[in-house]
Amino acid sequence: MELIQRNPDLTAYLAACEAVDHEHPRVRETVTHLSERYRDAYTYAEAAYVFVRDAIPHSQDSGDLRVTWRASDVLEWRTGICYAKSIAYAALLRARGIPAALCYQRLAEDDGSRPAIHGLVALRLPGARGWARQDVRGNKPGVDAQFSLDRERLAWTVRPEFNEVDYPVLYTEPHPAVLRALKAAPDRPHLWQTLPSEL
Questions:
Q1: pLDDT single digits (tens) 85-135
Q2: How far apart are CA 109 and CA 113, in angstroms?
Q3: Could you tell me the pTM of the whole model?
Q4: In which domain of life is the source organism classified (predicted)?
Q5: 174-181: long-range contacts at Cβ-Cβ below 8 A with a sequence spacing of 24 or more?
Q6: Sheet with 116-123, edge to edge strand ranges
Q7: If you write DSSP's letter for every residue of the chain in order, what string do you get?
């Protein structure tokens, strides 16, 4: 699949915004901590990936009722669903000068019911041929996402027979439907009932 930059200006994928608040002290503190051990862009990008995937539990898996949507809150509270964790990873990348985009899949249950949007990150490392999608959702039995630049190792591969979709567009900010759902949810169970089903 060919990924499409919604904004042709690559520097737009380095910018801070309300959700990807990479200038926040909590984000900067995390970047400094990771950068002490991982100095080049490649090892840093992988270390930041592993940190967000493994050290920040997916709130559905952990049972955490809180809803986070700013990168700084995800890092502070150590919780979030796929959207929030993707926002946090994008912030950690952008803070180190690595272009990062938010992108999405539409996934469904095994019978094709209950479609919902799933959040990913695409990054572009120096000298790379293009963007590489990553999934920081968090692993569990049956889910084994890994950092990979040459072959995607996402949590799920879309199944067209169930009307699942890989959306090719790379966004500089969270998609408005995603951000609306996150901001409006008083808790994670409510959010689970109001996840967008398409973009």
A1: 999 999 999 999 999 999 999 999 988 899 999 999 999 999 888 999 999
A2: 5
A3: 0.97
A4: Bacteria
A5: 174/19, 174/20, 174/69, 174/83, 174/87, 174/102, 174/119, 175/102, 175/104, 175/117, 175/199, 177/117, 178/83, 178/104, 178/117, 178/119, 179/19, 179/69
A6: 132-134, 116-123, 100-107, 165-166
A7: ---EESSS-GGGGG---SSS-TTSHHHHHHHHHHHHH--SHHHHHHHHHHIIIIIS-BHHHHT------SHHHHHHHT-B-HHHHHHHHHHHHHHTT--EEEEEEEE--TTS-S-EEEEEEEE--TT-SS-EEE--S--BTTB-----SSS---S----GGGT-EE--EEBSS--HHHHHHHHH-SSHHHHHHS--S--
Place of tokens 């940190």: 51
